[in-house]
Fold:
Amino acid sequence: MKRVVLAVGVLGLVAVGVIVGLQTAGRERSYRGLLARGDVALTSGDTFGAIEAFSGAVALRPDSMLAHLRRGETYRRRGELDAATRDLRAAVQLDPAAPLPLELLADVYAARQRFDRAVDTYEQRLRVESRVPRVHYKLALALALYRLGHIDRAIASLAESIALDARLADAHYLLGLCHRDQQHTQEAVEAFERAVTLAPGLIPAREELAALYESVGRYPNQLEQLQVLAALDSTHVERQIAVGVAHARAGHPEAAAVTFANAIERSPDNPRVYQELGRMWLDVGITYSDADAIQKAIEALDHLGAGPSASSEGLSLYGRALARNGELDAARRILEQATRRFPVAPTALAAFADVAEQQHEPEAARAALLDYHALVGEDSDAATRAGRLGLLSLAANDVASAQRWLQRALASEPANPRWLKGLAQADAQAGDVSVAKASLGKALDVAPNDEDLLARAASQSRPLSTRSRASPEAVSIDELAQAVTRRGESEDDERNREA
Structure:
């Protein structure tokens, strides 16, 4: 009896084992089938079907690194980065030595702009397998985008990537960006040149290269890159405009005109084409005093008109061309509109000040020049602008402002006779006779042959007035000049008598 019971027990255990084995084999077949179905769906672009299949595989085998990896990659392709992160983290935990889950997880961190975690994960990936140029490049990219003082580390990683595979155009491009950010211009140029040699159609690298060529004055090389860009990206007329601008800068107005004409044929309603064509002819007209070029500029800019769609910069160019042609009233109307269009081009304010000054309206000219100064700040022309503001203030009878601006200008150029003469006039009108004498004396010292100063010195012979400081008839510049001249003559006579 005992033997029978034992035999039945053994048979039962065998049966259970068989059943469990069959179930396990069935689950394994189902698991593999779901993985295969998910792969097919992913290959055909059916990401929803792929996720459904991979989710079934995860349900059957929650300990499967591969199922989590495939589903995480599918989520990444769909842009569902949070879900992708969860699956890829699970895959890494299930198999920390597998390189692909680490790389994909780092890619997701980078896509989420969590560059600190991306850097750590890429470095973990390289500890598993170091000689992978693609991962070194991705690490450098994350470091560069991280922007927390890791550019040197990015360059080192890119150097490693290039050492492993020197044909990675993207690595050379990123290396150029890093060198550019560190203002290592020559190294950046070399890196971008290598990138476009390896990948002639890499537009971003050519754009960076063109910009660097311009910054170092290599205009023929810049023009070459812009021409290639125009050929690679022929659907955008802005590429042709850039070629035309480069021709103009290089001193090839006829080639620029042909380029702009082609752009107009392709895009006759594009205002920027007419604006740059007008700018080019205006520059030629000003540089060579060429009246025909000024007329061509006016014709081109007239297409922009003065309607509500015209920009401040375009109206500024139009007004300057009209002023250069002697049409001051029309120029002033256009430039006044230019100063009221937002965003205001600083050149509009400067041009309006020029025209107002020519029309003998110092108040209007000074107001525009003050606005211009507020926009551009202390640039290389600040001293000249200060002197001009001083003289305009003097013409507008704002003596205090004239003194302030002229003193500011003379601080940079103490030997400028025009400003010294203006300051002497302002000091005289303010009643500061002794100070005015000193200013005029300095002006005569630095420009003893100045015809205007000499004419003023010789224009009157009456003695220096001793009028009240508060008198509106305060001492004139001519009286000051006469006094200084007479003082010099007396000193010469005294020296002659002593001799």
Remarks:
- DSSP finds 26 helices and no strands in the chain.
- The CA atoms of residues 177 and 183 lie 10 Å apart.
- Confidence is low (pLDDT under 50) at residues 459-475, 483-499.
